[in-house]
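Exam revision sheet. Question 4 asks you to relate a sequence to its structure. Input first:
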Amino acid sequence: MKPHSVSGVEMRKRQAAHIEAPPQAPGQPRPNTCCLCWCGCCKCLWNEDRIERSERQTCTKMDSIEATEEQRPSLEELLSWARSFEMMLRSLEGREIFREFLRSEYSEDNLLFWLACEELKKETNPSVVDEKARIIYEDYVSILSPKEVSLDSRVREGINQSLVEPSNMMYEEAQLQIYTLMHRDSFPRFLNSSVYRDLLASRRRTCLDT
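Answer key, structure tokens:
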């Protein structure tokens, strides 16, 4: 018997049926599809789904940027810093901006020491207190440290004695000394610096525009 042959008309019908077959859901493989559809051709539903996801991610990133902009200190908050050094230190944005200024004066370590002491005060676990107390000493009190802060000999001697049995309050007097130094020396210069004044002027312009 001769093998069954397929006529030209029937072959064309089969090809047309293949071309006009409805596409399947995005992400699902389609039978007899060409490899180009998996390479990102413009008519592929998988590619359209990928583009849509990319656009959603871009919008999410833009929303995040806008939220960050809104978290910047307001004009009222900036003005309150000029009235109170304590209020500025309580503000996360205030500490970051003040730290930027201190960095320009090579005295950033004063603020870092003060913040480390604040964290130590919150600790109650003896082993953690011991570890953090010694790290603070090595970083900011030891004369061998490049980040050594300026403390008088009496306070320094008290710290040396406290190292025998560290506590979460052992740096309280040293912390107060550095706080006073920043308040009386660095803070007035900060209020007259371009870091603070430019930010204040920018907030005032924003308020006028709105």
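Marking note for examiners. The CA atoms of residues 29 and 38 lie 9 Å apart.
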